[in-house]
Amino acid sequence: MSLVNTSRKPVKVQARQWLFPLAAAYGVLMLPLSVLGMLGYLPVPAGLQTPFGHAHEMLFGMAFLVVSGYLLGPMPKPQLLGYIALWLLARIGFLAWPFSLPVMLFAAAGAALLSYWVVPRFWRAKKWRNQSVAPIIILFSIATTLAGYDALVLHRLLAHGLLVLAALMFFMGGRVIAPTLASFWLQQNIRMENRVQPNLEGAGLISLTLALLLQVLDATALLQALALGVAGVVVWLRLLRWQPWRYWRRLDILWLFFGYASLGTALLLLAAGAYSPLAGLVAIHTLTVGAMGVLMVSIMARVTVVKRFKDANALRSSHLATALLVMGALLRIFAPVFPAAYLPLVHSAMLCWSLGFASLIWVFWQCR
């Protein structure tokens, strides 16, 4: 007599299917509330009343969730629900009691799980460039944990956290763009050579690592600027070698190029920021809104639409979402350059950001 195993395997769901819409919903609300709260237009929770709270929720709240959705893959529903619960507890805790021990503990639990689930996969990679993602995720998790404990700690960590995110965007953005371009040419029966550009990818990772080490060691401004400048030049060389002008009819590809170009420009501006406060100020929003915001929206929209329709250009709403983010990025980047129009530009950028993420939510609904 044979025994039949009646145990059922846990139902799995792609993490991005839940995490991407949650991140978009938070993006719609968090940024305008924090900006309006800092300007004194609205009473907002304590965690959104300062620039540090604004930065914390941008980098270690919303961006953390997008990175998780991109990297985690299929997960059992109970695990994913628990992960979301930890993220929500960290958000509620930070909004109500910013920079406190409970916030740090919830953030630490979520960050530890992300590292536990993702890091071993990259450590097992054969190429060092793929393995480099493991320490990047570990550093991002450490920064996420410590940033929620104290405002002074966040102040010291912010520059380091931005470089860690820049390294992640450099790698992940390139690994999205390269196969996208290869697929474009394959449809025309042309094989694309050196699509990843391994030498430039390696040079970018090394220069960003060096810049982070020099920053942590508090090296001279000149050395830090040189490392950041080299990283920015590498990003632009990689972008130009992809010959972006050849894809002018493909909006989905052009959005990715804009985000990657913003990353390279932000690194060059950070290098100049050692000698020009205005360049440093512009660099922050070029990196966070121009690079991070545009890459997040374009990649989330692309992954979702391609999975549903097998065509990245199947929905106009996906292009509208990214176009609004691009417009918002340009407005926010130029706001410090034109002090007389600063507030109108900030308000317009805020509106574009929220409408862009609202459009992204509509994309998710259409692809449900």
TrEMBL record:
Keywords of this entry: Membrane, Transmembrane, Transmembrane helix
Transmembrane annotation, as ranges: 18-42, 54-73, 80-97, 103-120, 132-152, 158-178, 199-217, 223-241, 253-275, 281-305, 317-335, 341-365
Superkingdom: Bacteria
Keyword Iron-sulfur: no
InterPro entries on file: NnrS
Keyword Membrane: yes
Name of one Pfam family that matches: NnrS
Protein's UniProt name: NnrS family protein
Protein species of origin: Thiopseudomonas acetoxidans
